[in-house]
Design goal:
Largest sheet: 7 strands, mixed
Distance between the termini: 29 Å
Helix content: 25-40%
Structural class: alpha+beta
Oligomer: single chain
Bound molecules: flavin-adenine dinucleotide
Number of domains: 1
CATH superfamily: FAD/NAD(P)-binding domain
Number of helices: 14
Number of strands: 20
């Protein structure tokens, strides 16, 4: 049986980052259920392998492997129950299933949590040491590795520039968006979030930390689905995974890390029996339900057709204070623009041509940050089921979410109206019953974006699954390192925080578990 110091289950944002930091100090086995699409990183160009893969999965990227399967070429498709009024109807929650995980398919918006979030963590679980100050060096390290930067105005689209100035004129504080897209050529391809960037412009763990881990001797096994963490006498000793139909057991002498994501990690812990010793496994699911908003502008020189840029963001403002809705401008997903989505697949030349044909199109994406919803992941890795009741027994979104998303959409429309917009979808001027129904339908059919907190960190096992260092309260040598450990919902997209958590966790692993010294401040391993 092969043995390693550390086995990491899931090579996404959290697991991939951690692997890159600890591989210089230990023998590491990195396992991921999805394929590894390799080749040397070439930001703005892409490796042949990634170009081919991204183009091919575009052709059917939402098709599952078979009628019975809950997974497809590069994703898991988990059933998620979202409406109390319709308890038997499930929507599909898609999660990345590819080496690099969510970091390989996301939009690349890079935001840090707000101050209120750190207070929220303490309120939720009394977690120690999760403060803005203590996480600062970890954000900085991640931002250096992932080339996080703000784009100069010259490459903003015209709609974003005008949106920003009008919003500022209305007294809405607007911020330039930072991203981890480097040498992005604004090809239009990124208009479909959920698609790996084939030009390597998205700085994912696929092109940064995972190659670094491999360079330092880590063994990566892709298409390797971890079935369970092996536990003896309350101590994690290794894992059993299936690769090419063969069940393989590997031993971990020092640490097993569950980093299979906010749905995959509680499922893996449940398959390993940890749910029987800690009742918090899979509970406390938080998320950011969101809606895209499309508008039509007069004229055709807005250049919103050349890519999914999200140049700036603001919070929904009410009574002079930011509320719990985050708004990115100036483009929404094409999926809600019926005349685009129905006409052509979101890839390739025909797609780009079509986008060029509708240059009047702009929009925004709205995330509701702290709805009154706490969900749950139930079941093991073969069939986890998610409950996240965004809509209540009235059939509409729960009141806080509905009120905030409606107000957000009205605020976006007010800004676009001053830009001369002639139409919006969803349309805040529709009768309330229609408008509220459109918001509800979008949320309950599209899943819950940014799942987090299903194995949350906290002071005691009464409220949480892992401690401040992401180590299990109950099982020795077991760590969780991904979105699942976030103690409560945050006011930003989660990738930055997950990377910072992994950076902090890697310091703990290097010093406390491997007994080694950290590299000098400011350096990476
Ligand atoms: C379409 C989309 C757009 C997004 N846009 C942004 C954005 O712009 N900015 C931002 O900050 N965030 C964004 N996010 C969210 C962000 O990408 C995720 O929150 C983050 O990547 C999650 O990291 P993670 O480590 O928790 O899980 P993941 O990165 O999902 O990693 C989990 C990994 O575990 C693997 N896995 C699962 N189960 C098993 C198993 N049993 N055995 C082995 N491997 C397993 C999976 O294949 C996957 O690679 C987006 C997400 C999506 C889906």
């Amino acid at each position: 049986m092969a043995d390693y110091d550390v086995i990491i289950c899931g090579a996404g944002s959290g697991g991939g980052f951690l692997a890159g930091e600890i591989a210089p100090h230990a023998s590491v086995l990195l396992l991921d259920a999805g394929p590894h699409i390799g080749g040397a990183a070439q930001p703005g160009v892409g490796s042949d392998e990634r170009r081919r893969f991204s183009t091919q999965i575009n052709l059917g990227h939402y098709l599952p492997d078979s009628l019975e399967s809950n997974r497809g070429r590069a994703f898991f498709a988990y059933p998620m129950y979202m409406t109390v009024a319709n308890p038997i109807q499930a929507t599909v929650q898609r999660e990345a299933r590819v080496v690099g995980g969510g970091s390989f398919i996301n939009v690349g918006a890079w935001l840090r949590p707000r101050l209120v979030d750190w207070d929220g963590f303490v309120e939720a679980t009394e977690v120690d040491g999760w403060t803005k100050e203590l996480f600062e060096p970890h954000f900085q390290k991640a931002e250096q590795i992932f080339h996080v930067h703000r784009d100069p105005r010259e490459v903003w689209n015209k709609a974003s520039v005008l949106y920003e100035s009008i919003a500022l004129g209305m007294g809405i504080p607007v911020f330039e968006n930072a991203s981890n897209r480097f040498h992005c050529i604004y090809c239009g391809h990124r208009l479909d979030a959920g698609m790996p960037c084939k030009y390597d412009a998205l700085m994912s763990t696929t092109v940064t930390q995972i190659p670094k881990a491999i360079e330092h001797g880590a063994v990566l096994h892709d298409n390797a689905t971890v079935q369970r963490i092996d536990i003896e006498n309350h101590r994690a000793t290794g894992v059993t995974y299936v690769r090419n139909g063969e069940a393989i057991t590997a031993r971990a002498n020092k640490l097993v890390v569950a980093s299979a994501g906010a749905i995959g990690t509680p499922a893996l812990l449940s398959s390993s029996g940890v749910n029987h010793v800690n009742d918090n496994v899979g509970r406390h699911l938080r998320a950011h339900p969101g809606i895209p908003m499309d508008v039509l502008l007069p004229g055709d020189d807005w250049n919103t057709d050349r890519g999914y840029q999200w140049n700036c963001f603001h919070f929904l403002m009410g009574n002079g204070e930011p509320q719990d809705t985050l708004i990115f401008a100036s483009a929404g997903f094409p999926a809600v623009t019926p005349w685009v989505a129905s006409a052509v697949g979101t890839y390739g030349r025909s797609y780009k041509d079509l986008m060029r044909k509708f240059p009047q199109r702009a929009g925004a994406f709205l995330f509701n940050l702290k709805p009154n919803v706490k969900g749950r992941v139930v079941g093991g890795i073969e069939g986890p089921v998610i409950q996240y009741y965004a809509a209540d027994s009235s059939g509409l979104l729960e009141p806080k979410m509905l009120g905030e998303l409606a107000a957000g959409a009205r605020q976006v429309w007010d800004i676009y109206r001053q830009m001369g917009a002639i139409a919006a979808f969803p349309n805040p001027n529709d009768p309330a019953s229609v408008f509220h129904q459109s918001l509800t339908l979008f949320v309950v059919t599209s899943g819950a974006l940014h799942p987090q907190s299903t194995c949350r960190a906290g002071r005691s096992r009464e409220t949480s699954v892992v401690d401040t260092n992401c180590m299990s309260h109950d099982i020795e040598n077991l760590m969780c390192c991904d979105a699942s450990v976030i103690p409560d919902h945050i006011s930003s997209n989660p990738n930055a925080l997950i990377m910072a958590i992994a950076s902090r966790a890697s310091d703990f692993v290097i010093t406390e578990i491997l007994g080694k010294s950290l590299p000098p401040a400011g350096g990476t391993s």
